[in-house]
Specification:
Blueprint (H helix, E strand, L loop, with lengths): L2 H12 L7 H11 L5 H9 L2 H12 L12 H8 L1 H17 L7 H23 L7 H8 L2 H10 L1 H13 L3 H9 L3 H11 L4 H8 L15 H17 L11 H14 L11 H15 L5
Helix pairs in contact: 1-12, 2-3, 2-6, 3-5, 4-6, 5-6, 6-8, 7-8, 7-14, 7-16, 8-13, 8-14, 9-12, 10-11, 12-13, 13-14, 14-15, 14-16
The structure holds fe (ii) ion (2 copies).
One fe (ii) ion (FE2) binds next to helix 12.
Length: 295
């Protein structure tokens, strides 16, 4: 099956997707045009007051560790740069479109906390290993499980049952999803990213955040970004198993993590191999303690 057929199959299964918020489409379009200045970008974002407030909260959160208060969108654009702010806009808009704050399931509640933890961890790993991403770390971490959000919204109890079986029988969730639907939540997330014309490096990081048969991190448009999200996701599951219980560490998961670390050995400042698990666990504790109220 080629990629477009696979994509169509996923879309057929999950049904109509929510439309991308118009501000996001406009910000994406504007930031692709090199001749567009900060004034124009900030004018478009400022039309959405709730979005502007969230961008300022994130800019002032511990994720960014700013020494000065970022009091205006203009200042955020100057200090963080247009690309970083664009990625924050994309991340929070897509997350808000898909996440149901009123859902009464543990999975929905856990997903927000888990996604913010993975976003913060990815950002922390980026700065510690000096990978120099510009917000791609945060957005990919925040959206990595958006396939779960869509499956939960569309299939409800049917999907929850699959998550419960994976948790309590120590089976790989992606395998169970593939048996039930023909695709995993990671593949569904990548399909959504393609439908919404999100950057390919983001779609690849979402698709590869778990072990995927026949695929390697090297296939990603930005392999290090995909590796960071994979490591951050695993560390988040270990640090905060959530009320659904810990994620099973299958042999495939361990292989996937080893592959990610091997790829990150060529980072400008790689973590020391013999105690990187402890280091990442301490980062997870730090992010959980300070950064999960970003928006
Ligand atoms: Fe996942
Ligand atoms: Fe996850």
């Amino acid at each position: 099956m080629d990629t477009s057929q696979h994509l169509q199959k996923i879309i057929d299964k999950v049904g109509d997707l929510p439309a991308m918020p118009s501000t996001v489409a406009e910000v994406l379009r504007l930031t692709q045009d090199m001749s567009v200045g900060m004034d124009e970008v900030s004018a478009v974002i400022e039309r959405d007051a709730a979005l502007t407030a969230k961008i300022l909260r994130i800019s002032n959160s511990s994720y960014y560790g700013m020494r000065q208060n970022v009091g205006s969108l203009k200042l955020a654009l100057v200090i963080l740069g247009v690309r970083e702010v664009r990625n924050i806009v994309l991340g929070i808009s897509v997350f808000d479109t898909l996440h149901d704050d009123n859902a009464d399931t543990l999975l929905a509640a856990n997903l927000k906390e888990h996604s913010l933890l993975v976003a913060g961890l990815a950002k922390k790993l980026d700065s510690e290993m000096r990978l120099n991403f510009q917000g791609e770390d945060f957005i990919a971490g925040l959206l990595h499980d958006m396939g779960k959000m869509v499956l939960l919204n569309k299939l409800g109890e049917k999907y929850l049952n699959i998550v419960r079986v994976a948790t309590y029988s120590n089976q790989d969730l992606c395998d169970l999803e593939r048996d039930a639907f023909g695709f995993s939540h990671a593949e569904a997330a990548a399909a959504l990213a393609a439908v919404w014309s999100l950057p390919a490096s983001l779609a690849d990081a979402l698709r590869l955040h778990h072990y995927t048969p026949g695929e390697s991190l090297e296939d990603a448009k930005n392999p290090k970004l995909a590796a960071v999200v994979r490591v951050a996701n695993n560390a988040a599951h270990v640090a905060c198993p959530g009320e659904e219980g810990p994620a099973p560490l299958t042999e495939e998961t361990q292989m996937a993590i080893d592959e990610a670390w091997a790829l990150l050995e060529s980072a400008p400042a790689p973590l020391p191999e013999d105690n990187r698990d402890e280091i990442v666990a301490s980062f997870a504790a730090e992010v959980s303690a300070t950064g999960l109220d970003a928006f």
